[in-house]
Structure formats: structure tokens, C-alpha cells
Amino acid sequence: MQGTVQTAHASLMDQTYRHQRLIYDVTRKYYLFGRDRLIAEMVPRDGDHVLEVACGTGRNLQLAAQHYPRCQFYGLDISSQMLETARGKLEEKIQLAQADACNFDGEQLFGRPGFDRIFISYGVSMIPEWEAAIQHAYGQLAPGGELHIVDFSDQGGWPKMFQVGLNRWLAKFHVSPRRDLQAVLKQIAQSNSGSVHHRQLYRGYAQYGIVRRPG
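^ that's the sequence the OP posted. Answer follows.
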């Protein structure tokens, strides 16, 4: 059953972004806020191995590699269409693979038993089993590693009309803001003796969470 769900989701993402991927980077800069902040704040050390889950067109990986040229970067996505765009954009030294966020094997895909940083930028709002994806990503961290997530929040500081309009628009792309992300991150941290930091961005338009695995 799980494999059927994953196949269906991969097909849905390919259908959604088969053409959208061609204009994705140009259009999303107007409402995917906080991505650059995440890249600036994850601060990997020289030599660290950094994975982006749901890497899409590779825009974030390209920018992160420019910020941290002495790190090794990896990306995975469930959509073959998105990866086609990413491969045309990124240098060969950034390894990419098609995989599901809920059950990928970093060692099998990239030869890495663990990653020093894993980040998910506006991905959990598109993953049906998003809690499982976050838990799985945490399990792929190396000791002392960090999982960074930025995504839509509840828009609590915005007028009701704005909230309704934004969520109707997001639904067209199968996006559902995860309003209980903070609670899920806290549960993962508490269950694994880790630590968590979460904050709202832009009056609740977006949220940024970090879970650290004990070193």
C-alpha cells in the first residue's frame, strides 16, 4: 500500500510541475519567503555533507553551494520532472537522486551513512505523510547534525481575507500549510534527546524550525 501511495504522489507531482518547473524559480520568489534565511542560518562547517529533501528545481542547492563551497551537497526529489530541471542547472559535483522523502536511504543513494545538515524548504506542505518524512529525515542525520525546515505557517498575523485567498491559491498546487509543525518537531526532539528551535517569520506567513541531534 505504501508503495502505491508513493507512486501516486510521484505521478501527481510530475503532472503538477511538468510545465510549472519551467517558470518555477521566477514565480516562486514572490511567495516562498524564508528560503534564503534558512541557507544563511544553517551554517555547515567546512567539509560537511548537506542534503536537501524535496530539492525541486535545485535553486536552493545552487545557492547553498555558492555560500558554502567547501561542503558537499546532495539533493533528492520524488518528481522526475523537477529533477530534470535541477540536473540542467547544477554542477556535476552536486549529487541528485529520485527518491521518496519518507523512506530514502542516504547510504544507498549517495554512499552517506549520515548527513551533517538536512534541509527541507517548502516541501513538508506538499508531502502527504509529512510527519513520517520529518521523522525519517531526522533519522538520516549524523551525530550532532541538524534538520532545518522552512514552510508556510498559519498566517496568524495577516487579515482573514488574505489567509483565505492564499490557502485557496496554494490548494491549486496541492500545498497544505502544516500548522502543527512545531509540535511535531518538539515530539521528535523529546523522543530522541535532541533540541528544537522554532519561530514564526513574517507575521506568521512562514515558519522556521530546527531540530538538532545529539553529538
